[in-house]
Amino acid sequence: MVNKKNAFWQALIAAVLIFDLGLMLGVYMENSRTGFIESSLLNSEINSVDQQLLQQINSNFDIDCKLAEAKLIKFADQIYEEAQTLEKYDESTDLTTTLKTLHKRYDLLRTLLWIQSTELKKTCNSSYNIIVYIYQYTDATVETRSEQSAFSRYLSDLKNEYGSKIILIPIAGDTGLDSLNLAVESYNIKNYPGVILNNKQVIRNLEDLSTLKNIIKNSQFSIPLTLP
Amino acid sequence: MAMSIIELIFFVYTFLSIYMLSLFVILYLQSRKEMFSYPKGKVEPVSIVMPCYNEQKNIGLAIESLLNLKYPKDMLEIIIVDDKSTDNSVNIVRNYEKKYKNVRLIVNKRNSGGAAEPTNIGIKAAKYDYVAVADSDSTPDKDALLKMIGFLQQDEKVGGVTCSIQVKHRSKLIEKLQAMEYTVIAFTRKLLDTVDSVYVTPGPFALYKKSVLMEIGLFDVKNMTQDIEIVWRMLKNDYKARMCLSAKVHSVAPKTWKGWWKQRIRWNIGGTQTLLKHKSLVLRKGMLGLFIIPIFAISLFIGLIGLGLFTYLFIRRIMTYYLTIKYSAAVETAIFTFNDFNLSLSILNFFGISLFILGTLFVIMSFTVLKEKELRNNSKFALLIFLTIYLAIYPINLIVSLYKLTTGKYSW
Predict the structure, then answer these.
(1) How far is B26 from chain A (nearest CA, A)?
(2) Mutation target vs B (from A27, A36, A104, A146; most B CBs, 10 A cutoff)
(3) Which of A61, B47, B356, B363 is least buried, going by the fewest C-beta atoms within 10 A?
(4) Hey, where are the domains in chain A?
C-alpha cells in the first residue's frame, strides 16, 4: 500500500510547480508581446516628435507641404497597423497589466497625431480627410462590441479603398486621458462608438456611415508624395 | 486585461485538474509493479446473487459464465432473483435450476423497479458468507472469482472487492466510447485503491462479505446507485473496498445514445443522492470524508460551474457574432474578416491546450497499462470524439439529472 500522505502531498507540490511553471510561461509570453509593442511604441513616439519638428520647420522655413503630408500619412498608417496588433495582443492578455498602460500611451500618441494632422491640414491646406474613430475600450456590452466591430470594419474598408486620402485614427475614449476627454467632449460625444470627420462632422449611428463615404468620395483630393 | 472572475474560475479548475492528474501519475509510479497483483486466496464457498428483470436475451449467457467459473462447483451457489419479469426470463432460469442443483431461482413478489431490492433478497437467502453480486447482462472471466476472493480473506476490514469492467461489444461508436471510458475508470479506480479510496463496487461483478453487508444494512433500495452508496456506508463503518485489476467482467453497455443518456442520468442522480446522504461525513471518517466526499462534491461543483461558464461565454460569443454580422450587413461591409481569427494565444488558451494534451496522454497511458491495444491504435476517431464531445456532454447530463432529482421525476 502506498504511503497515502506522501502521495497527496507530492501531488500537491507537483501541481503547484506545474501550475506556477504555466503561469511563468504565460507571464513570459505576455511580457514578450508587451516588449514588442513597447518597442513599436517607442519608434512611433520618436516618429511623432519628428513629425512635430517637421511641421515646425515647415511653418518657419516654408518647406514642401507635400513631403510633410506624405510623412504624416505614412506615420498615421503605421500607427493604425500597430493599433490592430495592439488590439489582438490586448485580447489575449490575462495576467499582466502593462499592455493597458501601453494602450493609454498609444491613445496619447494617437491624440497627438490627430492634432498634428489637423494642424498640417490647416497649414498646408491639405486635401486628406481625418477620420477619428472613438470607441469604448473597457466593459463594453455585447451590443456596443458588435456595433464597434461593424464600425471598425466599415472604416477599415474605407481606408483600404481610399488609402492616403484618409488618415484613420482609432482612439479609445474611456482611458481617462484629460486631453482626449476635452477634445472628445467638445464634439458632444458621450456614448461610444463615434466618428469625427475632419473635425466638423460627428457620426454616431451605423446608418450615417454611408454619408461619410459620400463625403470622402466627393472630396477634392490631390495625390500626396509616396514615401518608401 | 486584469483577471476577471471567469479567469479565476478557470485557473481554479486548471489547478484541480493538474492536481488530480499529478496524483494519478504519482500513484501509478509508486505502485506500477503491483497494479495487476492479487493476494492468493483460499477456495471457500461463495453465493452469487444475480438480480434479473426482463433479461431473456442475456440471462442464459450470464448463468453459463457463472457456471463456467474456474471454481469448485460444490462451493458455488447461484441465486437468480427475478424482479417480476414480463418476458421469458423466469422460464429460462427454471430450466437451469432443473439442470444444475447449485442454481436457485427466487421470484420477487413485486417489481421493485431497481436492482437493490432483489439483490437484498438474494443476499438474505445466500448460504455462504462470501456473496458475489452479478448483473444479468455481464459475464465475468473464468478466473475472476479466484483472483478476487483473496482480498477479502487477507484483511478482515475489507468488506467488498470490485474488478475491471470491460465493454463486451465494441462495434458501434457509442460502445467504443464507453469502452474507452470504462478503461480509464478501471485504471483510475485501481490507482485510488492504492490509497484506500475505492468508492464504488459496480453491479456487473463484485464480491462482498455477507456479514459486513448484513451489519451495515444491505443495499439502499431508495438509491439509484446502490453500488456506490453501499461502499460509502462500508467506509463509514470503518470497512474498506478493494479493486482487483486483473479480474475482469464483460458487461453490455448501452447501444444507443438514448440508453446511454438514461443510464448516466441514473448514475448522476444516484451519485448526488449518496453525496447528500453522507455529506455530514465530510472531513471525517478517513479517506471517505477527507478525499472521496470532497472530490465528489468538487467534481459536481466544477461540472456545474464549468457548464455555466461555457454556456455564458458561448451565448455571449454567439450574440456578438450575430449582432456584428447584422450590423456589418446593414452597412454593407465584410461579415467576416481575418482579424476575427485571433491567433495570439492567451494564458487561458495555453492552459486549456496543455490540459487537453495532458488528459489525452493520461487516457493513452490508461489504454497502454490495461493493454487495450485496439483502443489505443485503431480508434483514433473515437478517441477524438471521446476527448471532446463525449466528455463535454457530461455536464449537460448532470444538469438534467439534478433537475430530475429536485423535481422527483426519475425512475430506474
Answers:
(1) 6
(2) A146
(3) A61
(4) 35-218
Enter the ipTM: 0.82
Nearest to B344 among A88, A150, A209 (CB): A88
pLDDT, tens digit, for every residue of B355-399? 999 999 999 999 999 999 888 887 889 999 999 999 888 888 989
Domains of chain B: which residue ranges?
A: 35-277
pTM of the model: 0.81
**Separation between Cα atoms, residue B169 and residue A63, nearest integer Å:** 86
Question: The domain B35-277: what is its CATH number?
Answer: 3.90.550.10
Within 10 A of A108 (CB to CB), how many other CB atoms are there? Answer: 17
| Chain center to CA of A51 | 18
How many residue pairs bridge chain A and chain B with CB atoms within 8 Å of each other? 127
Hey, CA dihedral for B137, B140, B145, B151, is it positive or negative?
Answer: negative
The residue written with cell numbers 465494441 in the block is: B170
> Given this model, what pLDDT does residue B1 score?
45
Q: What is the pLDDT of residues B234-264, one digit of tens each?
A: 999 999 999 999 999 999 999 999 999 999 9
B171 vs A: CB within 8 A: no
Query: Do the chains contact at B347 and A142, CB–CB below 8 Å?
Result: no
Which CATH number describes the domain made up of A35-218? Answer: 3.40.30.10
